[in-house]
Amino acid sequence: MESFRLISRSADDTVAMGCALGDLARRGDVVLLVGDLGAGKTCLTQGIAVGLGVADKVTSPTFVIIREHAGRLPLYHIDFYRLTDVDEAADLGLDQYLYGDGVCVVEWADRAMGLFPAEHLLIELRRMSTNRRSLEMKASGARYVSLASELTSACSGRS
Question: What is the distance between the alpha carbons of residues 33 and 13, in angstroms, rounded to a whole number?
Fold first, then answer.
């Protein structure tokens, strides 16, 4: 596992970083997001959607758990905030999304880490101040090391 770090200075910056990630995304990518409320998980996902060419408004699927959005590649936006245990997540039939034809982005992924593929990109978002966020990327697998490296280069003017 390799680590990379970006600093976002605003919500718009976080969306722009997500857009860069969406531009770089490939079919089958799995991006796991972890962070407290207000850390920027949904902002980052909204940017990923823009980078994927999703025209819909992207909001957190907290109550429905999974939303699909059409774009260059399908975006499978999953939110585990309301889950109380891993068994609930296991019963959702996640394999069709995690191993599907689109890009899978999971908010609150730390609530069910054992369910995800061994190779993935984990992004831990942390609030540093009112507007600043730290995005710690932990890349598992060659594809995700390459993705995180490319993203870091693409966003180098921001960090």
Answer: 17
pTM here? 0.93
Domain 2-154 has CATH 3.40.50.300: yes
Question: How high is the mean pLDDT in each 10-residue block of the chain (159 residues)?
Answer: 94 96 97 95 96 91 83 94 70 83 95 90 95 96 96 79
Per domain, the residue ranges of the chain are 2-154
Q: Are 121 and 31 in contact (CB under 8 A)?
A: yes
Q: Per residue in 104-129, is it b (16+ CB within 10 Å) or e — as a string? A: bbbbbbebbeebbeeebbbbbbeeee
Phi, psi of 76 (to 5 degrees): -105, 105
